[in-house]
Amino acid sequence: MINEYKVWLEIQGKSKNTIKTYNNVIKKFLEFFSNYYNISDIQENILKAYIDKNLIFKFLAEQKVKRNLDTNSLRLYTRALSSFLKFLGLEDIAKQLKAPKVDKRLPKFITYEEFLELIKNAKNKREEMIIKFLFYTGVRVSELVNIRVEDILWDLGLIRVYGKGGKERFIPLPDFFLEELKEYVKNIKNNKLFPLSTRHVERIVKNVAKRSGINKKITPHVLRHSLATTLLSKGVDIRYIQEILGHSSLSVTQVYTHVIPEKLKEIYNKVFNKI
User: Do residue 228 and residue 193 come from a single domain?
Assistant: First the structure.
């Protein structure tokens, strides 16, 4: 059943990371279901007969206490369960599950000066290129580790990226960074630019940040946010930023307009000074 569910998620266009995460949640739920009803061989017809809203809530409550889940994790669990219920054809129960609301936090980002400080504290060329690539392209860490050398369109100065659901997009590369990449790929033997796991990349960024002495929690996603805020602060149209980041909705990208109030004030004054 789990394998069928994974295929169903693939057909729905879910990313590999989402499929893996949802799969882990459902495995925990099936274990809970088995213990709750003392059923060792769980069949689809048994699930359909015994699953109800109260059972789902009991599972979520147990997981919250057992694993000390925060609100974001509970939202993820709820989405995974809702997805699984739809897979089983239990749409009515799925509709009754409401993911807990979370406070919308403004994206964390670093300044360009702090970015330069990170580069100084990379201990080798690979670390330096990882930091630069994350900042200059704004790719997700899951996208970074899957970029191949042939995804770089040298003549056009673009990088081909496959985002969530396998959606393709093209991101421009600064000319000077493109030249650095040309030199970098001469010394790698793998087809992938950075043949590492996402966890390994996260550790690299964390350690470089630690050596830099920057008093902020810096992750690959923070570097992604930093590109967005840098571009927006320089007057780049938010629709172009949406395309670069691979956001499906402009509303997702618009959160960055809240982190640079000085730029918005400047734009506002320019508009009304001309009236």
Answer: yes
- List, for residues 62-108, the tens digit of each pLDDT value: 999 998 888 888 989 999 999 999 999 999 999 998 877 765 666 68
Q: What is the pLDDT of residue 254?
A: 63
Q: For residue 164, indicate whether it is catalytic.
A: yes
Query: Are residue 141 and residue 212 in the same domain, yes or no?
Result: yes
pLDDT beyond 70 at 174: yes
- Classify residue 265: in a domain, yes or no: yes
Which parts of the chain fold into alpha helices (H)? 2-11, 16-37, 44-50, 53-67, 71-87, 91-96, 112-120, 125-137, 141-144, 175-185, 198-212, 220-233, 238-245, 250-253, 261-273
211 is catalytic: no
The CATH number linked to 241 is 1.10.443.10
pLDDT of the residue at 275: 45
Catalytic site includes residue 140: yes
Active-site residue, 14 included: no
75: annotated active-site residue: no
Q: Of 132, 140, 184, 225, which one is the catalytic site residue?
A: 140
With respect to residue 104, please indicate whether it lies within any of the assigned structural domains.
no
Domain that holds residue 56: 2-96
Residue with tokens 């970015």: 115
Whole-structure pTM over 0.85, yes or no?
A: no
Examine residue 154 and state whether it is found in any structural domain, yes or no.
Answer: yes
Q: Decide if 126 is catalytic.
A: no
Of 192, 200, 221, 263, which residue is the catalytic one? 221
